[in-house]
Design a protein that fits this description.
Blueprint (H helix, E strand, L loop, with lengths): L2 E8 L5 H14 L5 E8 L5 E3 L21 E8 L2 E6 L8 E3 L1 E4 L10 H8 L9 H8 L1 H10 L7 E5 L7 H11 L3 E5 L9 E3 L5 H8 L5 E6 L4 E11 L2 E4 L3 E3 L6 H5 L31 E2 L8 H15 L4 E10 L4 E8 L7 H5 L5 H20 L17
Parallel strand pairs: 1-2, 1-7
Antiparallel strand pairs: 2-3, 3-4, 4-5, 5-6, 8-11, 9-10, 9-11, 12-13, 12-14, 12-16, 14-15, 16-17
């Protein structure tokens, strides 16, 4: 009997559509000879839906606003030792059993540990970071504080809070001047380059920070390296260790939302070419795989080893699991390497990097599922509850 893999995606997030793109790639990469693949779409109202239409990205524009008009609304619940998906309408409609959850979600309310907590409560194996790993990976302010405590190199930064921005404006402005302009402002809990502002002068400070605060309750302000090389590395692993992918160099500058995902934003690259087995199938989008990149990155002596070592340290420090991507910056003027941030469920699951190491997207999915099942088996050997007689003290006499 095949393992049923529930691919969860969407959700109440500003990166909802990006999640749909990444998940659609995974749906086509999962080996149908091994797995019974069940796409589980989370609407923008955080309701669950299933349907064959989810296998083709071309269908999505017809139901994003009203998924119930096309898809079947379902409930997900635990039944003994099994997790089941049952249609809400129709007494005699067949329910499905899920063996492994494969989250391909991005952003707040899903990637930030929220979905992981739900899956954990169901006692269902899942392929992504757990609650803690997802939460600290999503909140860049907390993430940077952990990096700082671990001695991981970063550019100078500070955090602006929406609650006291006006009240403590002069204090924040003084911190900005101490670092010096230009600065990068970015929401602490968003991804896909949403809400990022470049503050080039003192005159722009208040306006652009205020604009950035429209997206989140706190904003990261950090030193902007004016002549930088952006490099990224992916890792697959668990608490026992992780494997690093080849390092990519992004060659078309700062990637805003449009460059990453809009048609024509990035025209592809030699470095992004993938085998027919690894590339997204017909009906799937190229997503992050279309970014202009060079793999492997052109690095100076010792930088590859330095980036790998920092990435492994960051992976463990943030309690990471599954497939992540960690982004780095290199100051060309000084050759200094800085760790920027982690993506706990990266766009396209970074398959384009693993493909350059000889691993197809299908093989990557296999590795993530095996990793999830192994973690579940290890957890099953731990003690999480035990029988006591405490409540006997409250029995009626």
């Amino acid at each position: 009997m095949k393992i049923c893999v529930g691919v969860f995606f969407g959700g109440k997030s500003t990166e909802h559509e990006i999640s749909c793109i990444s998940a659609n790639q995974a749906l086509h990469a999962l080996d149908s000879d091994k797995y019974d693949v069940l796409p589980i779409y989370i609407s923008k109202d955080n309701e669950f839906f299933i349907g064959d239409e989810l296998f083709d990205l071309a269908n999505y524009s017809s139901f994003i606003k009203d998924p119930a008009s096309v898809l079947e609304k379902v409930m997900i619940y635990k039944d003994g030792n099994e997790v089941k998906v049952r249609p809400i309408r129709g007494m005699f409609k067949k329910e499905r059993k899920i063996d492994v959850a494969f989250p391909v979600v991005h952003g707040t309310n899903v990637e930030d540990g929220s979905l992981a907590g739900f899956l954990q409560m169901l006692d269902l194996p899942y392929t992504s970071c757990d609650v803690l790993g997802g939460a600290v990976g999503q909140d860049k302010a907390v993430m940077k504080d952990i990096f700082k405590a671990e001695g991981i190199p970063m550019v100078d930064y500070f955090v602006v809070y929406n609650a006291d921005f006006e009240e403590n404006y002069e204090e924040y402005f003084a911190k900005a001047k101490k670092i010096g302009f230009p600065l990068i402002a970015k929401p602490a809990n968003l991804g896909s380059s949403i809400g990022i502002e470049v503050i080039r002068s003192e005159e722009e400070f208040k306006e652009k920070v205020s604009e950035c605060l429209k997206y989140d309750f706190k904003v990261i302000l950090e030193d902007m390296i004016t002549d930088l090389k952006e490099v990224n590395i992916s890792l697959i692993g668990n608490n026992d260790g992780a494997k690093t992918s080849p390092i990519e160099e992004v060659t078309n500058g700062f990637l805003d939302f449009d460059k990453k995902y809009q048609p024509g934003g990035a025209k592809g690259s030699k470095g992004a070419k993938a085998s027919a087995k690894a590339a997204p199938a017909k009906g799937a989008s190229k997503g992050m795989a279309s970014t202009v990149r060079k793999v492997p990155a052109e690095l100076k002596e010792g930088q590859k080893e330095e980036i790998e070592a920092i990435a492994l340290k960051a992976f463990r420090a943030l309690n990471s699991f599954g497939c992540v991507r960690i982004d780095f910056m290199i100051d060309k003027a000084t050759d200094k390497v800085y760790c920027n941030e982690i993506n706990t469920i990266p766009g396209s699951l970074a398959f384009y990097l693993w493909n350059h190491d000889g691993m197809s997207f299908t093989e990557e999915c296999d590795a993530l599922i095996e990793n999830a099942l192994n973690r579940y088996a290890r957890r099953a050997r731990k003690t999480y509850s035990f029988v006591t007689n405490i409540l006997d003290n409250y029995r009626k006499k």
